Here is the input.
Amino acid sequence: MKREIIILIFSWIVVIGLYLWKIPARLKGNAQIAFLFGQAIAWIYVFLSVYFKRVKFPFREFPYATNISFSLHYLIYPAFVMFFEVTYPSSNSRTKIFFHYALFVMIANLYAFFIGHYTELVRPLKNELLNIPIFALLLFVAHQFNKWFQKGMKEANI
Here is the structure.
């Protein structure tokens, strides 16, 4: 099997396993909303990245259907958003929140760097450092949406 297929299978197993094993039942709904919104913003981001020729995907699961990677933007990057939301600090400590953002932006960028430089899953064509503020912004937008959504759910249940 190609290295890319092994990496994708391993990533699918890790994400699904972590979801089933590490996320408590009381947070599964919150995690699913974060995951779905993560999918929406990941698809928009990757569509714009491909359109503006910032990235290319030499290895794709559906090469005749789309120019983007299905697994990366359907499962893996939305999983980053999901785990970001589930582990978001409950305290209003700016230091904890800053380090939480820094940790997830660093993990997402390291993942993108390694698959971009050592596999054919993605080939960055333009400045990769631009991904750092973009990932931070996308996590912020996802968190704000999730906070808004959860507030609406609480108001509806009153």
Summary: The beta strands are 55-56, 123-124.
